[in-house]
C-alpha cells in the first residue's frame, strides 16, 4: 500500500510587489536582490487577507484537480497561521465544506511541505485515512520587518495543496521514502523571538517595555543558513535517492525549496545535476516557506517542464533547523495555472 498524489492546486495573492516597489522604502536595489537571491517579484497578502484564505483557495483547487471533494483528514503546514491558537486547519476544512474531519496544523517553516507530506502519507499508511488534503500555506510577509533589508526582499505569500489517496507503490504518483532531519542547536539562526511562551505575549505587544519591537519579526542569519541549506539539502537528497534506488541521472526534475536560486543551483551542482533539470520559480514568488515546493511543482507542470512519467526529487530546508527530501514518479494530473 502507498500514498499516491491525486490532486494539486495553488493560490497566490493578487498583489505583485516588485523589487523596485520594495526598494522605495528599503535600503537596497533591484540588482542586489536579483543577483543575490534570484527574486524579481513576490506576492503579498492584502490587508484583511490571511493564510487561511490562501489555504482554502489552494485546497479547493487541489480537490478539483483530484476530481473528488471527500477527504478523511486535513493537514496544514504553516509558520504564519492566522492566530497562535487555534490551528488554521479546522477552519480551512469547514470553509471547504469538509465537515468534521480531523484537521490540524504543523509548523516546520521552509521544510513544512516535506514534513507535512510525510505526516499525510503516514495517515494513509497507518490506515487512519484513505484520502488526505495537505496544504502548505503562508502569509509570512506579515512576520517580516519591512525595514529589514536582510529579510524583507526574500519572502512571499502563497499556498499549495495536494490530495493524497491510498494506492499501490508501483503507481505513478506513489510518494516515495522520506529522509527527514533536524538540528535544534542552530535554532537561533532563523527565529521570531517574541509571541511564544519564552517572550510571553502576555507581557505586551510590539514596543512593550522588555520586548523589543524587532523581536516580533523574523531574525535571520543568512550566511550560515546558506551553508547549512546547501549541505543539508545535498545530503538529504542523496539519502533519499539511495532509499528509492535511483542514481542522480535518473532524476528528471529537481524541485528544491526556493529560498535562494543560488542555494538550489549549488545543491544541483553538488549532486552533479544539470541546470536544465532544476525547477525554478523563485524569480516570481520569492520564498513562500511551506508553499514553496507545491507552487514550484504547479509552475513546472503548467510550463510543460514536468510531465507524467518523469522522476521528481523534492528537497527542502528551513528553520529549526529542519530538512527533508522525497521522490516520486509524476502522475497524470490536471493542474490549473495559479495567477
Ligand atoms: O528558507 C530557508 C532559510 N533561509 C535561507 O536559507 C536563507 C539563506 N541565506 C541567503 O539566501 C543569503 O545569505 C541572503 C540572500 C539572505 C543574503 O545574501 P548574502 O550573499 O549571504 O549576503 P550577506 O548577508 O553576506 O551580505 C553581503 C553584503 C553585506 O554588506 P557588507 O557587509 O559586505 O558591506 C550586507 O549588508 O550585502 C549587504 N546586504 C544588502 N545590500 C543590499 C544584505 N542585504 C542587502 C540588501 N540590499 N537587501
From TrEMBL:
It comes from Streptomyces sioyaensis. It comes from the Bacteria. InterPro entries: ACP_syn_III_C (IPR013747), ACP_syn_III_N (IPR013751), FabH (IPR004655), Thiolase-like (IPR016039). Residues 258-262 are annotated as: ACP-binding. Its EC number is 2.3.1.180. HAMAP family: FabH (MF_01815). Catalyzes the condensation reaction of fatty acid synthesis by the addition to an acyl acceptor of two carbons from malonyl-ACP. Catalyzes the first condensation reaction which initiates fatty acid synthesis and may therefore play a role in governing the total rate of fatty acid production. Possesses both acetoacetyl-ACP synthase and acetyl transacylase activities. Its substrate specificity determines the biosynthesis of branched-chain and/or straight-chain of fatty acids. It catalyses: malonyl-[ACP] + acetyl-CoA + H(+) = 3-oxobutanoyl-[ACP] + CO2 + CoA. Its main location: cytoplasm. GO terms for molecular function: 3-oxoacyl-[acyl-carrier-protein] synthase activity; beta-ketoacyl-acyl-carrier-protein synthase III activity. Residues 104-184 form the Beta-ketoacyl-[acyl-carrier-protein] synthase III N-terminal domain. The last Arg residue of the ACP-binding site is essential for the weak association between ACP/AcpP and FabH. Pfam families: ACP_syn_III, ACP_syn_III_C. Homodimer. It is found in: Cytoplasm. This is Beta-ketoacyl-[acyl-carrier-protein] synthase III. Belongs to the thiolase-like superfamily. FabH family. The active site is at residues 110, 257, 287. Residues 241-330 form the Beta-ketoacyl-[acyl-carrier-protein] synthase III C-terminal domain. One of its GO terms (biological process) is fatty acid biosynthetic process. The keyword Lipid biosynthesis applies. GO terms for cellular component: cytoplasm. Keywords: Acyltransferase, Cytoplasm, Fatty acid biosynthesis, Fatty acid metabolism, Lipid biosynthesis, Lipid metabolism, Multifunctional enzyme, Transferase. Pathway: Lipid metabolism; fatty acid biosynthesis.
Amino acid at each position: 500500500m502507498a500514498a499516491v498524489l491525486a490532486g494539486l492546486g495553488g493560490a497566490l495573492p493578487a498583489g505583485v510587489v516588485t523589487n523596485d516597489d520594495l526598494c522605495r522604502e528599503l535600503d537596497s536595489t533591484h540588482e542586489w536582490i536579483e543577483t543575490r537571491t534570484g527574486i524579481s517579484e513576490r506576492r503579498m497578502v492584502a490587508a484583511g487577507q490571511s493564510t487561511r484564505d490562501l489555504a482554502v483557495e489552494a485546497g479547493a483547487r487541489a480537490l478539483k484537480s483530484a476530481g473528488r471533494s471527500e477527504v478523511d483528514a486535513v493537514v496544514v503546514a504553516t509558520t504564519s497561521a492566522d492566530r497562535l491558537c487555534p490551528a488554521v486547519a479546522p477552519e480551512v476544512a469547514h470553509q471547504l465544506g469538509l465537515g468534521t474531519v480531523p484537521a490540524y496544523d504543523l509548523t516546520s517553516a521552509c521544510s513544512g511541505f516535506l514534513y507535512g507530506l510525510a505526516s499525510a502519507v503516514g495517515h494513509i499508511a497507518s490506515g487512519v485515512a484513505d484520502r488526505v488534503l495537505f496544504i502548505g500555506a503562508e502569509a509570512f510577509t506579515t512576520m517580516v520587518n519591512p525595514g529589514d533589508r536582510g529579510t524583507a526582499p526574500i519572502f512571499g505569500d502563497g499556498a499549495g495543496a495536494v490530495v493524497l489517496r491510498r494506492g499501490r507503490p508501483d503507481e505513478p504518483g506513489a510518494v516515495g521514502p522520506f529522509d527527514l532531519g533536524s538540528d535544534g542547536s542552530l535554532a537561533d539562526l532563523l527565529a521570531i523571538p517574541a509571541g511564544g511562551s519564552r517572550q510571553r505575549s502576555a507581557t505586551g505587544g510590539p514596543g512593550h517595555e522588555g520586548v523589543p519591537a524587532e523581536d516580533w519579526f523574523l531574525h535571520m542569519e543568512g550566511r550560515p543558513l546558506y551553508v547549512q541549506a546547501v549541505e543539508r539539502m545535498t545530503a538529504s537528497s542523496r539519502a533519499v535517492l539511495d532509499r528509492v534506488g535511483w542514481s542522480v541521472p535518473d532524476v528528471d526534475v529537481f524541485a528544491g525549496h526556493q529560498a535562494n536560486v543560488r542555494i538550489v543551483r549549488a545543491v544541483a551542482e553538488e549532486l552533479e545535476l544539470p541546470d536544465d533539470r532544476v525547477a525554478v520559480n523563485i524569480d516570481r514568488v520569492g520564498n513562500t516557506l511551506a508553499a514553496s515546493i507545491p507552487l514550484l511543482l504547479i509552475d513546472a507542470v503548467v510550463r510543460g517542464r514536468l510531465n507524467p512519467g518523469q522522476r521528481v526529487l523534492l528537497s527542502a530546508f528551513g528553520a529549526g533547523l529542519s530538512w527533508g527530501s522525497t521522490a516520486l514518479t509524476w502522475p497524470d494530473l490536471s493542474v490549473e495555472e495559479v495567477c
